[in-house]
Amino acid sequence: MPKAKPSPPSKFSGFSKSAPGFWHELAVEMNKEWFEQNKQRYQDEWVAPMYSLLGEVRAGLAKAYAPLKLGEPKVMRIYRDVRFSKDKTPYKTHVGAHIPVREGVSAMYVHLGMGEEFVGCGTYFFESDQLGRWRKLVGSDATGKPLAKIVAKLHATGYEAGGHDDYKKVPKPFPADHPRAALLKLKGLTAGFPDMPRGMLHSPKLVGWLVQHGAATAPLVSWLAKNMK
C-alpha cells in the first residue's frame, strides 16, 4: 500500500452497499495479482471513507476528551504478517482503523470486514513493563476506586468492559479477596460498543452513533491515557 494517506471525501456518506463484496472476492482470490488489480477499489470503498468517518468522529469527540487531544485517525495495513504464522494467506479480510489518544491507548478502534463489525476502545494488552504499574494503580484506593466506578457504570449501561485472556488468580502480593480483584487480574482494559444497528454501515448516521458511544466510554480511555504512561 502507498505510504501517503488517501484523500478522503469531504463528508462521510456511508460505506457503499457494494463495498462488502470486496471482502468476499478477496477471500476467494487471495493472491497478489488480483489484489493489485483491485487495490484502488479497496482504497475507494474502504480506506478513504474510513478516514473521512473517523476524521468526523474525532472532531465530534474533542469535547468529551478535553483537555486530552486525540491523534489523527490511522487505517491499519491490509497485509498480514505471516513470518511466524502457519496461516500464510497474505491479506486480511477486514479493515481496521483507530483514533489514538497516545501510544497503546485508542479512543476508538473500528473493525469492519466479511461479516464482521466491531467497535471498541482502550488498551487491548498492556506491555509487560506496564503490568506492575497497572496493579499498583488498581490496588490504590486513590486511583483504583475511580476506575472501578467507571467500569461499573459502563456495565450498568450495557457496555462490555474488561480484559482478554486474563489471569486466573489475583497476582501477588494482593489478597484474593481484594475489592478490585477482577481488575487486578486483567492483562488489558477495553470497552466494547453495542452491536451496530442494521444498515448503519451504509449511512452517514454512523458518525453520530460512534460519537455517542465514544463519548460514553471516554472516561475509561481518559483514565488509561492519564495513568498508564
Fold and architecture overview:
The chain is an alpha+beta fold. The chain has one domain (21-227): BirA Bifunctional Protein, domain 2 (2-Layer Sandwich). Helix content is 41%, strand content 15%. It contains six helices and six strands; from the N terminus they run H-H-E-E-E-E-H-H-E-H-E-H. It has a six-stranded antiparallel beta sheet. Helix 2 crosses helix 6 (206-227). The longest helix is centred in the N-terminal third of the chain and has 34 residues, at 32-65. It is globular, with a radius of gyration of 19 Å. The mean pLDDT is 94.
Task: Summarize this structure briefly.
The protein is built from 6 helices and 6 strands, in the order ααββββααβαβα. It is of the alpha+beta class.
SSE layout and pairing:
Blueprint: H1 21-29, H2 32-65, E1 74-75, E2 94-102, E3 105-113, E4 116-123, H3 131-139, H4 141-156, E5 160-162, H5 181-184, E6 189-192, H6 206-227
Keyword list:
single chain; BirA Bifunctional Protein, domain 2; about 15% strand
Helical fraction: 40-55%
Low-confidence stretches: none
- The succession of helices and strands, N to C, reads HHEEEEHHEHEH
* CATH class category name: Alpha Beta
Sheet with the most strands, sense and barrel status: 6 strands, antiparallel
Write down the overall mean pLDDT: 94
The second-level CATH architecture is 2-Layer Sandwich
**Beta-strand level of the residues, as a percent range?**
15-25%
How many distinct domains?
A: 1
CATH level-3 fold name: BirA Bifunctional Protein, domain 2
Tell me the structural class. Answer: alpha+beta
Question: What overall form do the CA principal axes indicate?
Answer: globular
